[in-house]
What does this fold into?
Amino acid sequence: NEYKSYLRVMTRSYDEAVFNDILAEIKTSDLGWTLKQAVQQELSKPFVNVKDIKRLVPVFLKESGLDVKLRNVVFTYLLKHQPPLELRANTCVYVPPESSTEPMFFIRNAQARWEKRILKSINTMCTEKSIPLARMRTLREQADFAQKWRDMSFADEINSEIRPVYAPKDFLDVLTSLSSPNYNPKIYDYTDVNERAGSAVWGLIQIRLHLKTTQELRVLFNNLSTHYFQTGADDIEGVNLEWQRLGTKVIQAGYSPAGQRYLQQGCYPTQRGSLWLTALNVTPSQPDSQYYTQLKSGVFKYELLVDKLFLQDVRLTAGNNEAYFVFEDLMVQLLLCFSRDTRLLEHFQQTTALPPRAYLRGNVGEAEKTVIYPPNGIIPFHGFSFYLAPLCFIWSEPVTVYLVFKELYTRFFFRLHCLSSHPQGILSLCLQFETLLQTYQPQLFYHLREMGSHPLKHAFNWIMHAFAGISIPRVCHY
It folds into this structure.
């Protein structure tokens, strides 16, 4: 009860729903078990009086370092589940996820149609090529696959009949076809330059969304100003020992907000791995290793159609890149485990997208006899492996790379291939790009448009792939 009181103080600006969700998350995590053990050990001490527990709990938490871990849990939860400030009307009132995932109904409808199109593509592929969605491997196949696990380049040859379900170009076509029933670009007032609502009248994105103005962007990314030195990006001789010592202190403190703030001005490669773990609140543990082993067992036991999609994607995109080809085996291993991870289904609470479902064999048409397919609910597109590739440079342990990749995906990457009006979503990013380019380089924008080489068509792959594959790994890390 005293721990609950302490947690309630941390979330006092939010309502009861936030407190209950965070409490439930702690109870089912490793931190909950650690707290229980710490309480038992503390109460077993002879000089501890039960009447003093209320006074001793905050002191004990700070001395043991559990206070920082609790704060990190609260901070991470609010980052993932709270809607952007623009959608909260500058208040601290909690907005339930189901009512804040997507306020625009025409975008929700477009997402539903896009999901049906993806499912139709997969079903057509299975029917034409007589490939099952999933099957259990024989014992011999399981043993052979386990032997090939460390050298996945020889697992299967690329099957030319297996094609990507969709590519960035297909998704761009969907974005450019969106239109709002409340906005007609043909009667747009060209004298009304509303930068906040998007003014890319020559652009491919013909809807208006809430965007940040140039001044707001300058404030938000103030630390990226040329007035500040960017560690890791500005090449100079020598090392800034003071900045490096500060990075060491941030790592030792283990406080996620401090880690994020520090990284806004870059870090040295020797500290990058530890600082990223701090900023993302990722702490690899023994249970994580055991869970990863369970995922591997699922890969050995069952063969999925998406396995072939992931394998082909790695070999044709990131694995075929001069910077990432050395990590081909590792990327295949991690993505196959990724496809079996049912914990990833939690991120669907933050979006209008729904995980695809498949009928159990012999039960076609019976809605109650369906399962989520693949188990993580994510169908890969052409270039999906680029999200993972830059991370392989930073850590040598597969479990750590996997945990960081999963955290980055559930925080940011999933918004890059999902229809949403969220400020971090692909729609807003594309509209922001077109608006800024049209505002500050109108002649270039108009020239490319008239040449039939629209700027967004060039930049879309960069945006959707989070600039991996086009930028060198060092820039992606920064």
About this structure: The two ends are 43 Å apart (CA to CA). The beta strands are 134-136, 302-304, 357-359, 370-372. The chain has 21 helices and four strands. The first helix runs from residue 2 to 10.
